[in-house]
Structure formats: C-alpha cells, structure tokens
Design brief:
The chain has 177 residues and is α/β, with parallel strands linked by helices. It has 7 helices and 9 strands, in the order βββββαβααβαβααβα. It has one domain: Rossmann fold, CATH 3.40.50.620.
C-alpha cells in the first residue's frame, strides 16, 4: 500500500507483472516543447507500469491571436496549427505503441477569447474520465510567471483529479523556488 496526501491506494501486481489498483486513465497534455516531451516520458512510464490507457491531448489556442488585438486569424495559419499538432499527436501515438502503451490522442481547440488552454484541458479531463493528468511545467516564479502565465498552474488550481507536474530539463532551482 502506498499513501499520498489524497488517499491510500492498494497496489497489487497482476499476472502480467503490472501494478493494479492505481490509474486506469492517464491524460497527458502535449505541446511539443522539451518540457512536455519529458512529461510524455513520465506519462508513458506510468501508463506502462499501471497498465493504464494514455490519452495525449494537444490544445491549439485559436483565440490567442484575437486576445492580442488581432481581428482576424488567416485560415492558412489555422490549418498550419492543426497540421503540425496532428503530426505531433501521430508521433506520440506511435511512440506510445512502440513502448507498449495503449494510447489515444485528442486535438482540442480554444476558440473563445474568454476560454483558456487550462479550461479546455479541464473540460476534456472530466469528460474523458482522467484519473491522473500529467503536465510539463517550466517552473517559473515571480515576474517571469506573472508575465508569461502558466497553463500548469491554472490547471492545478481547479483540478478534479491528481496532477503530476514534470519540470523541464533546463529548469533551474532558482526558477523553481
């Protein structure tokens, strides 16, 4: 049995050698950055260890340019975002399969200026029934965080399930606190 802040979870090893009783559905938010690649590696390891189904989600923020004062986002730009995101998701699914993990992917889009990437991920996590969400974080503090914001922090504040935050390889202890 392992104990955490939320609750104790009984862990048993199944006949296949995988640990049972933990997570059955793990959601991982992926944006192609080095930080999200590290988070993807952790999500893969957890999914393989527990036998969980993994869903890799990519959020395309189509409303961000509108929030910056633009009144029009060219369809070519939207198509390019979608195409690149689809390629990233296909690669993630292929990598997961090679690692022996059952994986699905989901392309999500933020289309309202009042919506956020974190809100979009929250809705999907609830709808999909995620029992754990894995996010990469740069671990910024102070003014860097104030100016750049943090999807991970926004998500964590309203999470309905446990969240695993994975720091990027280059995140310094000064950035993390």
């Amino acid at each position: 049995m392992r104990c955490g802040q939320e609750r104790a979870v009984r862990i048993e090893t199944t006949a296949s050698g995988k640990e049972a009783g933990m997570y059955e559905k793990i959601l991982m938010a992926y944006d192609g950055s080095g930080t999200s690649k590290r988070a993807f590696e952790q999500a893969l390891s957890l999914a393989r260890l527990t036998g969980a189904k993994l869903c890799v989600a990519r959020v395309v923020d189509l409303a961000a340019p509108l929030g910056m004062g633009l009144t029009y986002v060219p369809q070519e730009l939207i198509a390019a975002y979608r195409e690149e995101s689809t390629k990233q998701l296909e690669q993630a699914r292929s990598d997961a399969k090679a690692f022996g993990v059952d994986c699905e992917t989901e392309l999500l889009e933020v289309v309202e200026v009042t919506d956020t990437v974190a809100d979009c991920l929250q809705r999907f996590a609830r709808d999909w029934g995620a029992q754990l969400v894995v996010l990469g974080t740069h671990g910024r503090r102070g003014m860097k965080r104030a100016f750049l914001g943090s999807v991970a922090e926004q998500f964590l504040r309203t999470a309905d399930c446990p969240v695993l935050l994975v720091h990027g390889a280059g995140a310094s202890s000064a950035d993390r606190g």
